[in-house]
Specification:
With 249 residues, the chain is an alpha/beta fold. The protein has a single domain (7-243), classed as NAD(P)-binding Rossmann-like Domain (Rossmann fold). It is built from seven helices and seven strands, in the order βαβαβαβαβαβααβ. It has helices at 16-27, 39-52, 66-80, 103-128, 153-172, 198-202, 212-223; strands at residues 7-11, 31-36, 55-60, 85-88, 135-140, 178-185, 234-237. Strands 3-2-1-4-5-6-7 form a seven-stranded parallel sheet, with helices on both faces. The radius of gyration is 18 Å and the shape is globular. The protein starts with 6 loop residues before the first strand and ends in a 12-residue tail after the last strand.
């Protein structure tokens, strides 16, 4: 899988899983654009990744804002001449009683997690379709699209929507040679891994909690040119947790 000089946009790329994804592409020789609303973290990550490897650019953007998304894609095109890969990773949580969630909070998570996938994909695809080889889009869903805890309606709705819009986009963009896939991470620990307990790890069939690198490798697979036969899928990367039957002893 070769990503040398590929232009990759990672939304929510300043921290956590997004930073891990951006780092993986940079190490593979891609030109990576970090899109994030957190300017301080974005510039810090940009500096760190430039020292590690590759060409990295941070562009402050709020994925809730349609004009900022349009300007982001235009800037990437003007800077690098093309767009090859889009990772729709930006998102937020909302875990609050259904009786207390405000309409404003509901609209905010819908705009941040779900509407942004539609807008970013559409704007990036306008440039990807100009490429002879097309392009690739990966949308970050979640295992919470198919399983829930109480008080997670907003988050679950957006992640379920991301799984659905993924196969719709795969169909709509197929004539432009653009693959569209989703990844549903399970428990991915973005803090101090050494703080996790044996019980944390043993909850998984893999016998360990996930790391950002696990999701990054999935992104590399789904966006490699030679894997263009894979499109419209939701790849669950969760250490087997959603396939594990749990009984109270």
């Amino acid at each position: 899988m070769c990503f040398t000089n590929k232009v990759v946009i990672v939304t929510g790329g300043a921290n956590g899983i997004g930073r891990g994804i951006a780092s993986a592409y940079a190490k593979e020789g891609a030109k990576v654009v970090l899109c994030d609303v957190d300017e301080i973290a974005g510039k810090k990550t940009e500096s760190a990744l430039k020292q590690e490897s590759g060409e990295v650019l941070f562009v402050k953007s709020d994925v809730r804002n349609a004009d900022e998304i349009t300007n982001l894609m235009r800037k990437v095109k003007l800077t690098f001449g093309r767009i090859d890969i889009l990772i729709n990773n930006a998102g937020k949580g909302l875990f609050k009683s259904i009786y207390d969630v405000t309409v404003e909070e509901w609209d905010d998570i819908i705009h941040t997690n779900l509407r942004s996938v539609f807008l970013c994909s559409r704007e990036a695809a306008k440039y990807m379709r100009e490429n002879t080889e097309g392009g690739a889009i990966v949308n970050m869903a979640s295992t919470r699209a198919v399983m829930s805890e109480p008080n997670s309606e907003g988050y679950a709705a957006t992640k379920g929507g991301i799984v659905a819009i993924t196969h719709a986009l795969a169909a709509s963009l197929s004539d432009d040679r653009i693959t569209v896939n989703a990844i549903s991470p399970g428990w991915i620990h973005t803090g101090d891994y050494s703080e996790l307990t044996t019980r944390d790890h043993e909850q998984h069939l893999s016998k360990r909690v996930g790391k950002p690198e696990d999701i990054a490798r999935a992104c590399l697979y789904l966006t490699a040119e030679e894997n263009d036969f894979v499109t419209g899928i939701n790849l669950i990367v969760d250490g087997g947790m959603t396939r594990k039957m749990i009984y109270e002893e």
